[in-house]
Write a structure and sequence with these properties.
This protein has 612 residues and is of the alpha/beta class. The chain contains 19 helices and 19 strands. A hairpin with a 2-residue loop joins strand 10 and strand 11. It binds nicotinic acid adenine dinucleotide (DND), adenosine-5'-triphosphate and glutamine (GLN).
Length: 612
């Protein structure tokens, strides 16, 4: 049986930085060649970064992606790596009229949809149908994998299934491919698929089986959600069984706006055995030796299958290398790592070195501070205590304690004189006065940020964002929201986990215990607590999970056992806060339904669940 040494490079890339991404591919290729790999596979759209969104609709961008791929092929050869076949994701355009392809593939995500119909975004760009012919007009963008060998692109695969649900919009910007690419490497037939292709029935997986491929490699940019690694593993096992082939899944790593990609690449045998597993949230070259049957001398001529031969020569005898099989992280460790990576990459990729926000002594700002220090180091955070006339003594002492533990740049700016000056000029009371304090804080933070160049973070969590429990243009100020998709009860769990983890490592706990145990309060009026306005957070979060994530209607919520008065109140708050969320900062997606592209609701609507 020929052996194939496969290298999967789970790398971090940056959207639009084609030169840096190409350089990253070259480094991975050098590492893979040094490890004796016969084939290197990189993630989906590794050359352009993912997701490219409407950049795909710019001719200049697609041209640059194609040119970068050609240049990469030449550079790899110049690096002496031309003999190593490299599969890498990039944006290409339709090269010629597309033949009717394999199985159900190429139908996109619209049920019964017409695969030749250009997506909406493409229509905007001036793309058009080709007058009812079977093909798609040349020149429209496609999400592709290019196979590079000996200085040239020798094969190309265009993604069949273009996700357009949840956070994905690929049907809007790409046209689906229909053909399958099967490359013969070291005598082994290797089929190629891209991310969503794996999640849909039929298509490339079924075609890989029909084409007698022994290995199915899948290039992915699959965003993190809690426990999604378990879902992916089960999916890979099922698809490997269906294809009766080894399945190699390589995922990208890093943060991109509101998404975090978690790596965790996998190699799974047809019987479901895990042959290799990459670490989560870190770049890694996963090298695995596979014993695979030789491809047939006269392979089946399956319509829609492009076969390319990059090597019939069997691999030389070599000592097998043990493949890495990383242990999955625990629930809170995984979530923490996702938030740290999402924050770090947002800050750095947008050219900042420091972040800035208010430290209130409460748990949200404390957790944000610990995350920021883990992401950027103590020098990466400026914390500001901004006591008002209503602030408790402990809000200051707990913030002081936090800052001391973290060793950060910490400043105090009392806001009472500014609030008083405002009130003398513009009298206000009640909620207006409460919100003024939050707005003075927001103005102060933006002033420091404008002067010194930090990025302001907003500390709001998902529970508050759900019910609109924040002051617009006040404490909602900021460019990035690390806890945007973390419910308040999980903020407390994270705080406890981070302290326990520190204890286990013999380090000082970063978060003061008092910040975790105190009753949550906005401290905008005397003796205020969050529960004056909201149900207890465990009750609220359970209800929000059912209403926001599971999208239950009023009667389903009541059937699920939620209190009718809580349902009436919370559903109304959530619905009425849509306009606030629409203006909110991005933050890392961690759940199946985050606020933003994942959950799109009209701001102006007369639909009310409570009226049902
Ligand atoms: N549909 C719509 N489209 C566009 N704008 C709309 C709007 N509805 C209201 N507005 C505008 O929004 C204003 C009301 O919103 P906003 O000014 O935010 O004020 P509002 O939502 O009424 O009050 C903020 C609430 O959040 C609480 N809070 C504040 C700060 C921190 C925390 C915390 O614990 O973290 C909690 C505070 O105690 C208060 O209960 C209106 O005056 C109006 O200008
Ligand atoms: N006294 C303060 N000094 C500095 N920042 C403050 C102060 N009060 C509020 N903030 C800022 O506004 C955010 C909203 O905090 P608030 O106290 O209103 O409620 P919270 O959502 O429970 O947050 P936390 O748990 O951090 O207290 C805080 O996270 C903090 O960034
Ligand atoms: N890039 C993609 O096609 C991602 C879609 C896929 N269902 C995932 O989340 O993994």
């Amino acid at each position: 049986m020929p052996s194939l040494r496969l290298a999967l490079a789970q790398v971090g890339t940056t959207v639009g930085d084609l030169a840096a991404n190409a350089a990253r591919v070259r480094r991975a290729a050098a590492e893979a060649a040094a490890a004796g790999a016969d084939l290197l596979v990189l993630p989906e759209l590794a050359l352009t970064g993912y997701p490219v969104e409407d950049l795909a609709l710019r001719r200049s961008f697609v041209d640059a992606s194609r040119a970068a791929l050609d240049q990469l092929a030449a550079d790899l050869a110049a690096d002496g790596l031309g003999e190593l076949p490299v599969l890498v994701g990039y944006v290409d355009r339709v090269e010629g009229p597309l033949a009717e392809g394999v199985g159900a593939a190429g139908r996109g995500q619209r049920e019964g949809g017409d695969a030749s119909a250009p997506p909406h975004g493409l229509q905007r760009e001036g793309g058009r149908r080709d007058g009812g012919g079977t093909g798609v007009p040349k020149g429209l963008p496609q999400n592709c994998a290019g196979l590079l060998h000996r200085g040239a692109r020798v094969g190309r695969y265009a993604k069949h299934h273009l996700p357009n649900y949840g956070v994905f919009d690929e049907f809007r910007i790409f046209v689906p491919g229909r053909d399958l690419l099967v490359a013969r490497v070291r005598g082994v037939d290797v089929a190629v698929a891209i991310c969503e292709d794996l999640w849909q029935e039929g298509g490339p997986v079924a075609a890989a089986h029909d084409a007698d491929a022994e290995l199915l490699v899948v290039l992915n940019a699959s965003p993190y959600e809690r426990s999604k690694d378990d879902t992916r593993l089960e999916l890979c096992r099922r698809r490997a069984g269906e294809a009766r082939a080894v399945l190699a899944y390589v995922n990208t790593v890093g943060g991109q706006d509101d998404l975090v990609f978690d790596g965790g690449s996998l190699v799974v045998a047809a019987d479901g055995q895990v042959l290799a597993r990459g670490e989560a949230f870190v770049e890694q070259l996963v090298v695995v030796d596979l014993d695979l049957p030789e491809g047939s001398a006269s392979p089946a001529d399956v319509p829609g299958v492009d076969r390319v031969v990059v090597g019939e020569e069997p691999a030389p005898h070599r000592e097998p290398v043990p493949a890495p099989v990383a242990e999955p992280l625990g629930e809170m460790a995984e979530l923490w790592a996702a938030l740290v990576l999402g924050l770090r990459d947002y800050v750095r990729k947008n050219g900042f070195t420091q972040v800035l926000f208010g430290l209130s002594g409460g748990v949200d700002s404390a957790v944000c501070a610990a995350l920021a220090v883990d992401a950027l180091g103590p020098g990466g955070l400026v914390g500001v205590s901004m006591p008002s006339g209503y602030s408790t003594a402990h809000s200051r002492s707990d913030a002081d304690d936090l800052a001391g533990r973290l060793g950060i740049d910490y400043r105090t700016h009392p806001i009472a004189p500014m609030v008083d000056a405002f009130l003398e000029n513009v009298p206000m009371s009640g909620v207006a006065e409460e919100n003024l304090q939050a707005r003075v804080r927001g103005t102060l933070l933006m002033g420091i940020s404008n002067s010194e160049g930090q990025l302001v973070l907003t500390t709001s969590n998902k529970s508050e964002l759900s019910v609109g429990y924040s002051t617009i243009y006040g404490d909602s100020v900021g460019g990035f929201a690390p806890l945007k998709d973390v419910a308040k009860t999980d903020v407390w769990r994270l705080a406890r986990w981070r302290n326990e983890d520190a204890r286990a490592r013999g380090e000082r706990e970063p978060i003061p215990e008092a910040s975790i145990t105190k009753a949550p309060s906005a401290e905008l009026r005397p003796d205020q607590t969050d529960q004056d306005s909201l149900p207890e957070y465990d009750v609220l979060d359970a209800l929000l999970e059912d209403y926001v994530v599971r999208a239950m209607g009023r009667s389903e919520l009541l059937e699920a056992g939620h209190d009718p008065e809580d349902v009436r109140r919370v559903v109304g708050l959530v619905d009425r806060a849509e306009w606030k969320r629409r203006q909110g900062a991005p933050g890392p997606k961690t759940t199946p339904v985050s606020f933003g592209r994942d959950r799109r609701l009209p701001v102006t609507t007369h639909w009310r669940e409570e009226d049902e």
